[in-house]
TrEMBL record:
GO cellular component terms, A-Z: plasma membrane
Protein name: Rod shape-determining protein MreD
Coiled-coil segments on the chain, per record: none
Family: Belongs to the MreD family.
Organism: Thermus brockianus
Domain of life, source organism: Bacteria
Major place of residence: membrane
Biological processes per GO annotation: regulation of cell shape
Entry's transmembrane regions: 60-81, 93-117, 129-146
Keyword DNA-binding tagged: no
Amino acid sequence: MTALLALLLTLFLAGLLSALWPQGLMAPDLFLVLALWYAWGRPYYLGLPVAFLLGLLQDLLGYGLLGLHATGLLLAAYAFYAASRRLVAGEGLGASFAFLWAFLAKWFGYFLVAYWLRLDLPPLLPLDLLLEGLFTLPLALLALRLKGARAP
C-alpha cells in the first residue's frame, strides 16, 4: 500500500514539476528516487524488476524511446544495490555515494541504449547532469531517511 501511495505521489509531483519547472532546465528524476526508495531494504529479485517497470512507466508517460528509462533505472537500481553492499546506504556520506553511483549508472544506461540503437547523442552539457544530480540528491536522501525511520 505504501508503494502504491509513493507511486501516486511521484506521478502527481512529476506532473506538477513538468508544469512549473523552467523550460530547458533538467528537473529532478522522481522516478529514480522512487526506484531507489523501493529498492532500499528489499532483495534484488524485488527491486530490480520494479525499477525496470517504473522505467517502462516513465517511458510510456513521456515521448521517448520505449526501454530507455527502463534500462537506466534498472542499471541505477543494480548499482545502488552494489554500492549499498559496500557502504552504509542509509546514513550520510554512504547514502550520497550510493546515490551518486546509481545516478551515474542511470546515465550510463541511457548512453548504452543510445549507442546500441546508433542514435545521435543529444547535446548534454556536464552542467546539466550536475544540476539534475544536485536537484535529485536531496529528494533521494529525504526518501531514504523517511523509509529508514519507518523500517523495523
